From TrEMBL:
This is MaoC-like domain-containing protein. It comes from the Eukaryota.
């Protein structure tokens, strides 16, 4: 499963349509842990560096978690409520067509995202699972649509998956502007907390975003 990750752009070397790019992927760590229920979890961290002819343009870090399967007593995710009220929010309703298209777009052939019978009978989910990276992409929609000012770009984006989202269930995507702190880079103009709420009002994914002016 997709546990979390982050993306950092180089404001002085943004990727442009038509450029030739090279992506280098390396494993940065493998960590074996035990859950509260005593199940083994293996966290695998990957780093993907994207370069063009000017050098590094983007670094994509992601963490995947491999877990033991337990058909007899599947673990129910803990309901965690948001700590803050959103400045901006928007509702969405992921459909089977959207999940299928995203699978095709990202060359993801895992049947858990588009085969209901497989998701239910093999993976023990109530319905097809919304992709982790799709949820992360949706986290940025409030910023893209209403919060980013002209000339501003996202420099840092960090996110963490907390509970699954399922197809044909309503979700709410939220954003709140946060105060800048001294440990941030001097060029950061704005900071946001972003999150996705499931139909029960609990956190499904949360993240932070730092915005700078395009160089």
């Amino acid at each position: 499963m997709w546990a979390g990750g982050g993306v950092e752009q180089n404001p002085r070397n943004l990727l442009r349509v038509g450029q030739e790019m090279v992506m280098k992927t390396r494993c940065t760590g493998v960590d074996v842990k035990e859950s509260r229920e005593g199940k083994v979890m293996v966290f695998v961290s990957l780093e993907k560096v994207v370069e063009n002819d000017q050098g590094v343009a983007l670094t994509d870090s992601r963490t995947l978690v491999y877990m033991e399967k337990d058909r007899e007593s599947p673990v129910k995710p803990k309901l965690v409520k948001p700590r803050r009220q959103a400045d901006v929010s928007m509702g969405m309703h992921p459909t089977a067509i959207q999940l299928f298209r995203y699978s095709a777009l990202t060359f993801n052939s895992h049947r858990i995202h588009f085969d209901h019978e497989y998701a239910k009978n093999v993976e023990d989910h109530p319905a097809c699972l919304v992709h982790g990276p799709l949820s992360a992409t949706l986290l940025l929609e409030p910023l893209r649509l209403s919060l980013l000012q002209p000339g501003q770009i996202i420099k840092n984006f960090r996110y963490r998956a907390l509970s699954p989202l399922y197809v044909e269930q309503p979700i709410k995507i939220c954003a709140k502007k946060m105060a800048l702190i001294p440990t941030m880079n001097a060029d950061v103009e704005a900071s946001y907390e972003v999150w996705v709420e499931n139909p029960q009002g609990g956190l499904a994914m949360s993240g932070t975003v730092e915005v700078v002016q395009e160089k």
